[in-house]
Amino acid sequence: MNSHLISNILRFVFLVFLQVLVLNNINFAGYINPYLYVLFILLYPFTGNQSLFLFLSFLLGISIDIFEDSGGINAAACLIAAFVRPNLLRFSFGISYDHQNIRLSATPIGAKLSYVILMVLIHHFVLFSLEMFSLNHIILILKKTLFSSIFTVSLILLSLSLFSKKYR
Questions:
Q1: DSSP three-state, residue 94
Q2: How many Cα atoms within 13 Å fall on the side-chain side of residue 37?
Q3: DSSP code of 27?
Q4: Scanning 25, 63, 137, 157, which has the fewest C-beta atoms within 10 Å of its C-beta?
C-alpha cells in the first residue's frame, strides 16, 4: 500500500474518533459545535477517484451518525459536500484545478480560505437544515451554520498550519 492510502485511512479514523470522543462534547452557547471531520473531505487527494471519494465521504458521515445516533444527517451533509467539491475547487483555484496541479499547502491564502469557508458553510447548512427540518427554524439554522462554521474554519486552519508539510 502506498503512503497516501495509509495517511488517508489514518486521517479518516483519527477524525472520526476525535469528533465523536472529544469535539461532540463541545457546545458553546447551545448552538456552536466544531465539526473537524470535514477536514477529510477538504484534504482528500484532488486527483483521486471521484466515485471512491463519494463513497468514503458517505462512510465518514455514516460513521459519525452511528456514534451520534443522528439518523444519517452527517452522511447526507458529507455526501453533498463531496459532490460539490469539484465546483468549489474550480471556483477557488481556477485554472490550477483544471490542470490538476494544486497543493493545498502551497496555494495562496485567499484561494485556500474561500475553498475551506465555502465547503464548511455548505456542509453545515445541509447538516443543520436536516437536523431542524423546518423552515420555521430558518433563523436558528442560519445562526448555527454561521457560528459553528466560524469555529470549524478556525480549527481547520489551525490544523492545516500545525500539520502542514510546509512547516516541517
A1: coil
A2: 36
A3: -
A4: 25
pLDDT (tens place) for every residue of the chain, 168 residues total: 577 778 888 889 999 999 999 888 887 777 678 899 999 999 888 877 889 999 999 999 999 999 988 999 999 999 999 999 998 988 888 766 655 656 666 677 888 899 999 999 999 999 999 999 888 889 999 999 999 999 999 999 998 888 766 543
Q: Which residues contact 75 (CB under 8 A, 6 or more apart)?
A: 58, 61, 62, 64, 65
- Other CB atoms closer than 10 Å to residue 26's CB: what's the count? 11
What one-character DSSP code corresponds to residue 103? -
Domain architecture of the chain: domains with CATH: 3-167 (1.10.1760)
